[in-house]
Amino acid sequence: MGRFLPDRRQLLKSASAGFGYLAMSALLANQVRSEQVTPSSPPGHLAPRKPHFSAKAKRVIFLFMQGAISQMDTWEYKPELQARDGQSGPGGGKLMASRYKFAQHGETGTWVSELHPHLAKHVDKFCWLRGLHTDTPAHPQAVIQLHTGAAIASLTRPSMGSWLLYGLGTENQDLPGYITINPPPNFGGSVNYGSAFLPAHYQGTRINDAGYLPNLEAQTPITLQRRQLDLIQSMNKDLASRPHAPSAIDGVISSYELAFRMQSKVPELLDISKEPEHVQKAYGIKDGPAGSFARQCLMARRLSEAGVRFVEICHPGWDQHNNLHRGLTNNCQAVDQPAAALLADLESRGLLEDTLVLFGSEFGRLPSAQGPDGRDHNITGYPMWLAGAGVKPGFTLGATDDVGQFAVEGKMHTNDLHATLLALMGLDHESLTYEYGGREFRLTDVAGQVAREIFA
């Protein structure tokens, strides 16, 4: 038997990149699957794809208020709750009236508390979902379910942003199609923007509220970096061409190329200091933690305008079991002006016509008191609002009872919310599936009803 003499490429693979190949093989061994792509889709995993049916919404901005807003102190005016302050509530405990003044706003006469003077000016744009309910009154499970549809948090599922990217691709090939700004590190962490068993190029890209993305600036000259990447990619493509090669290797190739292109695009896009002074003033831009959400809102507009399919921004700290009134006042001051400015900015640029904005928490809070100054979790009835593309402005679906504890009309489970959001983007939640582990998965699992009543 003759002695085997490796050629130059084989020697490079086994010596300089051998360990990487071994690691990649281990990582991809469990990811062999067939990715379903719409037949009419153009080549490329992240290329724009045709929706299942025509839709006005092309992109989503999700304003996530992590911790659960007290709805009866912000969006849900309940005269009965005010009248029964201190009496026994339907689920036990003593009812606690809101200390905040409510007033009617807009042509719709929508009741809004004094905590949201800026957003109150936009109520005629809002499409209310007031009969929401979910399964688990614990933050980790509820946050994960809101983001992935999984009622059992240990069963990791792709996030809704990943499903949207999988179904529709992205409008800008030089940017990630899914970006999450300031996501909470706990309550599931990266699970909430991960792609799970979907290929890795559908996962969210995390940045902080200052627009920082790790390892974005090249440490080597761009020409040398391109040569290094070409070498790595030639190996990746060689692996991809082999029989029975893991399909996920194509995602690795795409991700590397996207990261290379992002170096020249993302830093300028996230630099909000280039915005005119009047725009920064409208959002309330300031340094430090107090300006976090304002910066996120402005970045969200810039990213959406540039073609990012799904942007999520987050304001944490709404879990007021105690210190309710100080905490709620501070939180609302932080989000009210920037969120209102985002809506106005999108509208003035013509972007609200094809951008869907969602505002809400993982669940709500009870009408009864918890201690001297707090409210506990409520999963049986709470609101969210939508604005923009595809929804009826000034419309309300659903309602809670007289004190705001239970959904009694237009009940809408988290699965129904997901089915409706996908439909507003032109996707049939029952058809948007992915085969993994011998079965087909979808964001809504085996449930979900589309609330077509809210469609414009």
UniProtKB/TrEMBL annotation:
Which Pfam families does this UniProt record tie to the protein?
DUF1501
Query: What domain of life does the UniProt record list for this protein's source?
Result: Bacteria
Q: Which Gene3D superfamilies match?
A: Alkaline Phosphatase, subunit A
What name is this protein filed under?
Sulfatase
Q: Which organism is it from?
A: Planctopirus hydrillae
